[in-house]
Amino acid sequence: MKCGIIGAGAVGGYYGGLLAKNGFDIHFLLHSDYLYVKKNGLFIESKDGDYHLSDVNAYSKAEDMPLCDLVIVALKTTENYQLPAMLPHIIKDNGIILILQNGLGVEKEIADMVPKASILGGLCFLCSNKVGPGHIKHLDYGSVIIGEYLHEYRPSGINGNMKLIADLFKNAGISVQLTENLGLARWKKLVWNIPFNGLSVILDATTDQLMAHPSTRCLAENVMREVITGAKHCGFFIEKEYADDMLKLTEQMTAYKPSMKLDFEAGRQMEIEKIYSQPIYESASAGYDMVSTRAICLQLEYLDIKAAFDRSDSH
Amino acid sequence: MKCGIIGAGAVGGYYGGLLAKNGFDIHFLLHSDYLYVKKNGLFIESKDGDYHLSDVNAYSKAEDMPLCDLVIVALKTTENYQLPAMLPHIIKDNGIILILQNGLGVEKEIADMVPKASILGGLCFLCSNKVGPGHIKHLDYGSVIIGEYLHEYRPSGINGNMKLIADLFKNAGISVQLTENLGLARWKKLVWNIPFNGLSVILDATTDQLMAHPSTRCLAENVMREVITGAKHCGFFIEKEYADDMLKLTEQMTAYKPSMKLDFEAGRQMEIEKIYSQPIYESASAGYDMVSTRAICLQLEYLDIKAAFDRSDSH
Fold first, then answer.
1. pLDDT band, very low/low/confident/very high, at A254 (cuts 50, 70, 90)
2. Of the listed A130, A189, A261, A274, which one is catalytic?
């Protein structure tokens, strides 16, 4: 089974690295790190043990890659505009695409690009950063929830493709859970991502700081309940207690910077569209206005553009 | 007519300065600038002409002040906890108290402290900063809207005290407008203050930057409409077009830092309670939850406490 991985950052480098290390036939499509990785390979510094992959199948162009049975999309969603020019070169007819991205709406977007492929969505529970060219630092966790994408996130049941990928990942030592309801899994992840990603950027705070102050804890809770209500309007039922569980979990975590905060600090565009705009839009279309979420989204859009201007000024 | 002024900052220094300059019997209660002003007087740098008051009646303790017919409260609302120990020493029985402060609920608080006094509320449309000890810089505007406070902001009609104060101010060259509905005037000012004070602090932005970006312009507009709806629930009717007018006005202003932004930058506590918490509470009590306003308020509370911690760490 030939597997292509688009992006070798915190997500693609971590999972792709584990698959390659365990002997699977892995091909990485890289951008900025291509020359470095081609020459030096990938170095994964991990709490489960560091390792170095010296001989990596690295490509700078989709056209140069072999056709793959499985393509793992591990780009930031802000780079998805590049996918229509890439995917048709990489994916076999009736191949499987596994999308390891945040937010809502990524599967539909990609399903429209490659209508013959079977689309799986994956949610990563992973603390990992790219700390240098070809250098990934894995801090904690690493499990994935995988579900099949059907039109409008209809519940899917567990199918053969899902089991195939789950076995592949498990053989590489990655913990996998399968879900019959990918939409529900995505909304559940948003319950945490929407408050903590945005507030950490806007207030320049780590999760422990947001939890320590009663006002931001209250705001995070308000937003969580709003997201749960939004999900309900879209047909995905999340128990109210899930917000309490997520707050407790966050309280027990050490000081943590959500991915959007890391993106913002590194001068990368933030994944506002898929994590905020799309859920807000879906919920509003179903008759519920997520007002606090929208306020946070609008603040983030301001900061995102301002940072882009500031960067262009300094060039 | 003996007039005491509590606070000689951007507001008290500007209006008190004009009254003193025009020959009225003015007595300033000062805190940090007492010794400086006692020795050097007040210097007002103004777009209408600079002037220096060399001989200022300055006091450091309320107990040392003469009893006054009129007391103008020109403290930040965050300092109002000091007033119960001050006002009884300064105000004559049946005297007039004019409160030149921002937000909602200041009149009730002070009426409870001095039940015999007649309470007027004033809304200042003033761009002015204290730039050094006894040194006020007046940038623009300067008019005041004055109304009488009756229990629960019931409309009052125009009475003798209001006319008396209006004449006093007009004789000092200050433009005054009287209102029969102080509550309405306070809510109308909040329509601007709530979006622009908070967002300028949270996003580290001037008004022109907030207006230039469609997302923050949209958020400001959403919040304005929310405040108008909140006011309506509390019995104060503001036309919808008022939000459009305020947005247009803000667009025409030059780059401007609202008072809360200046307070935050100077390391002063922000006036969150009177500008945010109180209106949110009043509106919620009347059955309407100002959700975006509450999100902004909770963010400000976080930043306010964080700044206080950061200051204490650096000592």
1. confident
2. A189
pLDDT confidence bin for B199, thresholds 50/70/90: very high
Distance CA B260, CA B272 (A): 9
In this structure, are residues B240 and B247 in contact, taking their beta carbons and an 8 Å threshold? no
Q: Is B189 a catalytic residue?
A: yes
Q: Residues 173-212, chain B: which have Cβ within 8 Å of A?
A: 199, 202-203, 205, 209-210
Determine which of B280, B291, B313 to mutate to test the interface with A (most A C-beta atoms within 10 Å).
B291
Contact across the interface for A218 and B305, Cβ inside 8 Å: no
Nearest CA in chain A to B201: A203
What band does A286 get if pLDDT is binned at 50, 70 and 90? very high
Residue B302 and residue A205: Cβ atoms within 8 Å?
yes
Distance between CA atoms of residues A49 and A173, nearest Å: 12
Which three-class secondary structure state does DSSP give residue A91? strand
Phi-psi category of residue A134: left, alpha or beta, with phi > 0 → left and psi -120 to 50 → alpha? left
Interface membership of B219 toward A (CB under 8 Å)? yes
Helical (H) or strand (E) element with A244: helix A241-252
Which among B99, B91, B84 is positioned nearest to B67, based on CA atoms? B91
Size of interface A-B (CB pairs under 8 A): 82
Minimal CA separation from A116 to chain B, in Å: 38
ipTM: 0.92
Domain ranges of chain B: 2-180, 184-313
Give percent of chain B with pLDDT exceeding 90. 93
Overall fold of domain A184-313:
N-(1-d-carboxylethyl)-l-norvaline Dehydrogenase; domain 2 (1.10.1040)
φ, ψ of residue A207 in degrees (nearest 5): -60, -35
Distance from CA of B258 to the nearest CA of A (A): 18
In this complex, is the C-beta atom of B284 within 8 Å of any C-beta atom belonging to chain A? no
Q: Which residue has the tokens 């939000």?
A: B243
Please give the span between the terminal C-alpha atoms of chain A, in angstroms, as a whole number. 45
Tens-place pLDDT, residues B72-131 = 999 999 999 999 999 999 999 999 999 999 999 999 999 999 999 999 999 999 988 899
Question: How far is the alpha carbon of B95 from chain A, nearest alpha carbon, in Å?
Answer: 40
What type of residue is B276?
A: Y
**Average pLDDT, stretch A32-48?**
97
Write the CATH number of the domain with boundaries A2-180: 3.40.50.720
